[in-house]
Amino acid sequence: MAEPELLLDSNIRLWVVLPIVFITFLVGVIRHYVSILLQSDKKLTLEQVSDSQVLIRSRVLRENGKYIPKQSFLMRKFFFNNQEDGFFKKTKRKVVPPSPMTDPSMLTDMMKGNVTNVLPMILIGGWINWTFSGFVTTKVPFPLTLRFKPMLQQGIELLSLDASWVSSASWYFLNVFGLRSMYSLILGQDNGADQSRIMQEQMSGAAMAMPADTNKAFKAEWEALELTDHQWALENVEEDLMSKDLDLSGMFSKELPTGIF
Amino acid sequence: MMKIKMRDKLRKWREENFRNSEQIVDVGEELINEHASKLGDDIWIIYEQVMIAALDCSRDDLAWSCLQELKRQFPDSHRVKRLAGMRLEALERYEDANKLYDSILQDDPTNTAARKRKISILRAQGKSSEAIRELNEYLEQFVGDQEAWHELSELYINEHDYAKAAFCLEELMMTNPHNHLYCEQYGEVKYTQGGLENLELARKYFAQALKLNNRNMRALFGLYMSASHVAASPKVSAKVKKDNVKYAAWAASQISRAYQVRRVREENVKCSAHGITKAVYTVAMVHNVNIIHL
């Protein structure tokens, strides 16, 4: 507030700020469609499908086992958790961590990810820096220290300029991250233009795929199933039912009510 | 306007898995012949729906034309191949259909549709024990396929293997705890198995089905029958007998209420409520059940 305010030419607003926003947005949309085109088919093996369904069945048994008779519940629990030949004890899947070297499809996926996301960002950032250089574009609303000056004020060689005034390159980067929510609005969730999500995935590591997890998942399910008990939900169902008369409304209407379940 | 209504109707039938094939063929044929260009990308799924309905109604010409259109648009699709296989099944060329499905499975071993069609070929040929065996193998791999569990339970019921049918229905009940029809079917299987324990289980599951849907008449009758059978059995204790008599009486009163409702709705219904109450009384007398007030 104390320092003199710089008055920027309004042409800057018209010819720099808005075009950068448009360019970033359009590049993001193009990236989304390109990533869809380049998407390779993920082929699941029979074993993976089967394992995931078994895990679902065990989870369903834990959650809804109370609706089946106690004998049946115990029979299924025994099948899964038996000491000698229970399913979770017996099956050990081969654990092959998918490193980029051994798995060629992973390698191509990584390359495609890099090409579609990192490369355009670098190219366009550099082009904007070259085209819109030599002037300040905008001012960030919070004060910054002098350390930020070389980063945010590329191309402007003024020592006394407040670090809050930034060049067009930094405005571009601000846009790249800021337009994320716009992308989810327009392209729907899970779109290929969402860069920060891609970067997060890369950081969490390539070993997120199923194989390493299956054994651990089985062990976790075994423990969880050991702990579950059978509380039969139908213990007092007759008393509950007969506490009041049946609600017979709408019984003989012609329309078949589809919302019964 | 008409075409939008027709399209919405088709979509509703598709999403809720209705099998009204004649209606689908009527509506779908008109939609395809007259408004094909204006449907956009919806047309492909409508072709698939109409083709399956046409196979049901023996309309080979319509099925063939739909299949041709789909083949032209999606030449390498497994989904279209499966439809071609279904058409061969409809023409009873089971060998050719089997070969087609095998080729799909060679390409993609996880394709469930082709496997299920092979099993239905076995069922169509009447080879139920082989169908049961294949279906068991399929379910070992794909434990979560509810359609398959239901089909297996039906096959077991036809073979009178009620214990195994009950197992399949238990799987279904666990994955769909709010579906009253599975509870009722399970109760019926247990009732058919017979024996005191099974009858008590049957009674409980009929009650559960009624709790989930108060209007399930079949479950209501099932509750009445199982309760009265348990009450009539010589091996039960007095308390259990008393309880079951009470249950049966309650069920009988609800049945007659339902017939009253029906009578009120339609004045000229043939069987009067009086006749039904008389019938219920008679059945109750046979089982020595004391009906307090009807």
From TrEMBL, chain A:
Main subcellular localization, coarse class?
endoplasmic reticulum
Provide GO CC annotations from the record.
Answer: EMC complex
Q: Does the keyword Ubl conjugation apply?
A: no
Which cell locations does it reside in?
Answer: Endoplasmic reticulum membrane
**Which UniProt keywords are given for this protein, alphabetically ordered?**
Endoplasmic reticulum, Membrane, Transmembrane, Transmembrane helix
Q: Which GO terms describe its biological process?
A: protein folding in endoplasmic reticulum
The membrane topology term of the UniProt record is: Multi-pass membrane protein
InterPro entries xref list: EMC3, EMC3/TMCO1
Recorded family membership? Belongs to the EMC3 family.
Q: How does it assemble?
A: Component of the ER membrane protein complex (EMC).
Q: What is this protein called?
A: ER membrane protein complex subunit 3
**Which species is listed as the source?**
Cyprinus carpio (Common carp)
From TrEMBL, chain B:
Where does this protein chiefly localize? Answer: endoplasmic reticulum
Keywords for this entry? Answer: Endoplasmic reticulum, Membrane, Repeat, TPR repeat
| Domain (EMC2 TPR-like) ranges | 81-190
Q: Where are the TPR repeats?
A: 146-179
Where in or outside the cell?
Answer: Endoplasmic reticulum membrane
Q: Name one Pfam family in it.
A: TPR_EMC2
Any one GO CC term of the record:
EMC complex
Mind telling me which InterPro entries this protein's record contains?
EMC2-like (IPR039856), TPR-like_helical_dom_sf (IPR011990), TPR_EMC2 (IPR055217), TPR_rpt (IPR019734)
**What PROSITE patterns does the record tag this protein with?**
TPR
How does the entry describe its membrane topology?
Peripheral membrane protein
Describe the task this protein carries out.
Part of the endoplasmic reticulum membrane protein complex (EMC) that enables the energy-independent insertion into endoplasmic reticulum membranes of newly synthesized membrane proteins.
Subunit details for this protein? Answer: Component of the ER membrane protein complex (EMC).
Give the family from UniProt. Belongs to the EMC2 family.
* This protein's name: ER membrane protein complex subunit 2
Organism from which the protein derives = Cyprinus carpio
